[in-house]
Prior knowledge:
The complex is a heterodimer. Chain A is of the alpha/beta class. Chain A is about 35% helix and about 25% strand.
Amino acid sequence: MPDKTLTNPELLGIHQLVVQYGHVKALRGVDLQVRQGELVALVGANGAGKSSLLMALSGLVPMQQGQIRFGGADITHWPTHRRVQGGLVQVAEGRAILKTLSVEDNLRLGGYHQPSGTDLQEIYQRFPILKKRSRQLAGNLSGGEQQQLAIGRALLAKPRLLMLDEPSMGLAPRIIQEIFAIVHDLHQQGMTLLLVEQNVRQALKLADQAYVLETGVITLQGAAQELMHHPGVLAAYLGG
Amino acid sequence: MATMLAQQLLNALSLGSIYALFALGFTLVFGILGVINLSHGGLFMLGAYAALFFLEAHWPAWIALPTAILVTGLIGLLIDLLILKRLRRQQAPHLMPMIATIGTTILMTSLAQGLFGAESRHFPLSFFDNASLTLGSLTLPYAQVVIILIAFGTMIVMGWLLKKTRLGIALQAIAESPRAAALLGIPVERLFHLTSFLAAILGGIAGILVGLSFNAISPFMGQPMLHKGIAAIILGGLGDMRGAVLGGLFLGFAEVLAVTYLSSEYRDAFSFGLLFLVLLWRPQGLFGATHVRSA
């Protein structure tokens, strides 16, 4: 299936991004592009720097070098909350649920900069379980429910680009399928997504474009379908 | 006998409510910023002296006292902007803000001493003098009634702000995880500033109320108050708002009972002894959870 999004305008452009913790370089000059309406997968082994990249995109780790453009603006020096308000929204690894708050309060905080009651009802329609549990403490939800809450909460922030960091992590296989179905639906509805996954096969199946990150460097990039059959990817991530 | 007990309970309530107010501001900063701000005692003293300054300039009390409270809030904000913000940015270890805020307290104490003298002073307010309400055989001095109303009124407003408003829920989110809060688009740094401002306001109000209650303020009044504030928030459970209020009230009652039934020399020994016993029974404090703040 040819990628119909290739001619779409760029939404996110990362240029020569370097992130360093002390003497350790987590990212060593990464270039990456996400076009409007695209689902881009970023895959790689544990410790390759995937989460560092998303954290840098959200402005939560300082970057030593490079530039981030989003929606035509240079957001390299923007604080985190301004990036979120601008539509660059992340569902962090581990879901970052506020466990001591109710499900509904978590959701309301998702729309912190643009509160609106009707949006909340839309989220409840999409994720009925959240409505059922709206008054419970978010910490009491199961892993799959927490992931739904995290995604629902992020949607309330009206993302122009939704970044998902390992949404399948720690979930049972059946639940993982549900989560990937949600990601697929969002993409079908026109949402632009950057998906970080260790579940490489699933990620490549869903994505239009993909990047392979190894020890802080992009080693492969291209159409997701092609990468799925690339000998390097087959050997390293898809068990030959 | 019953009248005397009622009178003492009223004293305990007014003293305890001041402690509670002080402790609430103290624990707010700890819960949300994650630092122990040892300048809270200094801000408490500053509130009282700012009130003295404006009252001596012959401003009417209804303007002078709110202005003093606002000034205290702004100094609290300034401490955050000039000191705590930098330490946060450098991810300084916990001891650093403690040492830095001891420094600001010393600075404030010295300034008060230099400008107003080391001896204790009192507010030039006469309308509280000896005026009282009489309820049966019970005498309620106006000052005490006003103190209790202001202290509880302020705490109720703070409780509503923190539990019922969007801003308050955002603050709770920051208390649990500043990083998760930032990812939701909450302007964390701005709310840190706001927290420092609000906490200083609570400290300033407590300082003014102590000035009204004892009719005496001194540049050194912050230090013993700080000890009681620390005791109250440890008793209540670090970072817990309800706990701080109950811890403060507990200390107030313990002190007044000690003075009434033992002797005033044993006041602090008795209340801190009780604190010790409570902590043996519940080391995490009355409301303290054993939750660990995530990154």
